[in-house]
Amino acid sequence: MVVTVFSTTMSILSFLQNVSTAQEYPGCFIIGSDSKIVSLDPLCKKRNDEKKLRIAMKANELYHQGIELGRKGFYKEAISNYTQAINLNPDFAEAYVSRATVRYLTEDEQGGFEDLNKALNIYKDRGDTQRYNIVLDMVQHIRREAEWEKNP
């Protein structure tokens, strides 16, 4: 009887040690019935990739809905859609540029300027010099226009 208790105690201790060890490693895993750590990283990576794709598709859908709403003059709703797209994908530079455009149309110059600067940073980080330069031209044009309004 003592041997069985000792064996069960060792099994529990072994299991707890494996759980403790597994928690120190990032990733996706289970503890098998034999108390061994079984990596599920390939399965979890696939799920994460699929989740990221679904999020990107939803962000893109919201972005295109924002474009349509803006074209119809529903600026508040368009801004809301762009904001939702950005919340889903914070690196969605095109959504920042589109939201900036609508913000300027609704006389939220500060918000528009902040969005354009965010888009500039994203394009710079991506190394997308063509789009970076286009947005930079927009920012410079807005600055010149604001300066002209101050000093006609």
List keywords for this structure.
2 strands, disordered N terminus, 152 residues, two-stranded antiparallel ribbon, 79% helix, single chain, mainly alpha, elongated
How would you characterize this protein structure?
- The protein is 79% helix and 4% strand.
- It is mainly α and 152 residues long.
- A hairpin with a 5-residue loop joins β1 (29-31) and β2.
- The longest helix has 31 residues, at 41-71.
- The N and C termini lie far apart (98 Å).
Task: Write down the Rg.
Answer: 26 Å
Helix content: over 70%
- Secondary-structure element sequence? HEEHHHHH
Oligomer: single chain
Q: How do the strands line up in the largest sheet?
A: 1-2
Distance between the termini: 98 Å
Give the beta-strand count: 2
Number of helices: 6
Shape summary: elongated
Structural class: mainly alpha
Q: Mind summarizing the main beta sheet?
A: 2 strands, antiparallel
Topology:
Blueprint: H1 2-23, E1 29-31, E2 37-39, H2 41-71, H3 75-88, H4 93-105, H5 109-126, H6 129-150
Helix pairs in contact: 2-3, 2-4, 3-4, 4-5, 5-6
Question: In brief, what are we looking at here?
Answer:
This protein is mainly alpha-helical.
